[in-house]
């Protein structure tokens, strides 16, 4: 392939924050240490057949004991900010009263981040509901909302003087619909109605915590992280494809955006799911709580998709959900199918489509965040590739370097178009427990040898560190030029 003529470096705005993200269950290990009890992910991972190779988070990256070295590693790479999550079952075992030892860990972590000059960004819920609460109905039960408020206030009371940015939920779509409807994530339930009940209660929990934290501390920066797709109809002139794309957009994006920014569920969504009882769970005042103003919207973007009404019968469609035949996560989009577009894909079979991120950010700003004067922040973007390590454990992952450069460039395109995007977190710092895929998929810019727990920065980490140090982004094509595979 022809090289680009001249490598044009592109400046990254000085106030644009660059960092990395992780989540508690995916890296910590230390399952029953210092009083932690099981979450739904411990139960799910220990259920035969639920996770590839029977992998669990029992040990993971041993971050619970290795956090200081991990913070030092981030510092050596120049990270400006670190997005992590706290484990509910560590802080409030069984979802009950506070366990001081659990909070001690997060205090040590936050103190070492602050010491290293890395801004902590705390997520209260990244999918790890205490199992004891699931036993009482989990997110389908309204009582879980109160328990989440108790837990969040406990974390706040200990850390609010050192953590400025607080996000309630990571990707309620996944908690609700991969967990309660598709059965692909914990707790492994397969009910469209349960997914909708869970979605509503998750959002109510978000709104309640924003209200409570705001009252206690007006200086905190509050928000939540949603995952988005960019759903394009396969044939824009075929009303059936347009309808399929509308449903996917409604049931992944607008079902969360509209309650937060407009104080109502989308009318078309309510129509689509009328038979599934969502409205039975909506009490007077709920939408006012959910639409409590936020300061920042976290945007997780991995891929868009072409959606059609016909099953393509393709490998890409079969590859959804890890190749295992689970049911659709969408409560009412049975006739929506993903169609391959011939784009390069990652090791997850997710299409690589950076311009989708630009379009997404522009849309979010114009239709939701802008009118509400809310800043956007890319809280996750990243890729798994089939990494090959040399004898020293080094991975020359040009495809990942190209991926990061291309997506950062897409974010800067949105900034140039007038969208206030404050920063970007790469997912993830480390190779880690990739949910239903276990350790089989690697997203890290740092390789983890799971036999020795040795961390080795990949080529992509060195390139990212260079971007942060120089505030200059090089073209993606340059990194990919010598690469055989994707990019
Ligand atoms: C994020 O979720 C998570 O926050 C993070 O923990 C995880 O490790 C990372 O990404 C990488 O997977 O319509 O059934 O095909 C993943 C985001 C959003 C990706 C939904 C798959 C399509 C679901 N996911 N998406 S489906």
UniProtKB/TrEMBL annotation:
> EC number(s) on record?
3.2.1.21
Any one GO MF annotation of this record: beta-glucosidase activity
InterPro entries, alphabetically?
A: GH, Glyco_hydro_1, Glyco_hydro_1_beta-glucosidase
For this UniProt record, the keywords arranged alphabetically read as follows: Carbohydrate metabolism, Cellulose degradation, Glycosidase, Hydrolase, Polysaccharide degradation
Catalysis performed (reactions): Hydrolysis of terminal, non-reducing beta-D-glucosyl residues with release of beta-D-glucose
SUPFAM superfamilies registered for this protein in UniProt: (Trans)glycosidases
Work out whether the entry's keyword set contains Hydrolase. Answer: yes
In its keyword annotation, does this UniProt entry include Hydrolase? yes
PANTHER family, sorted: GLYCOSYL HYDROLASE, LP05116P
Q: Which family does it belong to?
A: Belongs to the glycosyl hydrolase 1 family.
What name is this protein filed under?
Answer: Beta-glucosidase
Source organism of this protein record: Terrabacter terrigena
